[in-house]
Amino acid sequence: MIAPDTVRLALPRLPPYLLVTMTPENILPTYERQAKGFDRNRSKALFERVWLDRLLAHAPQSTGKRRVLDLGCGAGRPIAQYLVDRRVEVTGVDGAAAMVALFQENLPNVRVFHEDMRGLDLQETFDAVIAWDSFFHLSKDDQRAMFKTFAHHLAPRGVLLFTSGPEDSEVIGNVEGEEVYHASLGPDEYRALMTEQGLEVLRYVPEDPECDFHTVWMARLAG
């Protein structure tokens, strides 16, 4: 939910003792408090478009409409809105009830669940799964566990799109003036975790200058 340039450029990496009160468990309460301000100020310039178009180009279409699961969907703008405008059947998931309420206001005809992505089991699969600026709020151990969850929700040949940091790190960013935790594993570990789940990396661009310097991964499940 927070742009990696904010994480990497605006704030220094902090020593572990300063991270004690800024933990992943503070993320959802922070977004509960700041949902309206975040939705109001979140960039709608759609710099993500190049990667969303790549996702749609690679994802299968296993049913009448291409189905996409948006994990950490926030208020639905601009990513879910862009996909819906392209006749994609979107399902949103967010752990902050205030964000889910805004998503329902912004996209009243789109299905959304108030659920934590950690350990999620919707008992269905999707042609693509997105975790854009959301997954990197999790602890490193929770990130490691998420790859099984990603794979579990992908149809054969389904595509995963997510953002991370460019290196193994823990940093503190901010949303609407409140501090928020971010973490990243190293690129080699992300690759290994995806390989374990049958995911083949299609594209990886650290600090992509075409995408507001986000570090972006796209992978495909074997099928």
TrEMBL record:
- A Gene Ontology MF term for this entry? methyltransferase activity
Tell me where in this chain the Methyltransferase domain is found: 68-158
> Could you tell me the keywords of this UniProt record?
Methyltransferase, Transferase
Keyword Methyltransferase appears in the UniProt entry: yes
InterPro entries of this UniProt entry? Answer: Methyltransf_25, SAM-dependent_MTases_sf
- Top-rank taxon: Bacteria
**Biological process GO terms, please?**
methylation
Which PANTHER family does the annotation name? TRANS-ACONITATE 2-METHYLTRANSFERASE, TRANS-ACONITATE 2-METHYLTRANSFERASE-RELATED
What this protein is called in its record is Type 12 methyltransferase
Which organism does this record belong to? Celeribacter baekdonensis B30
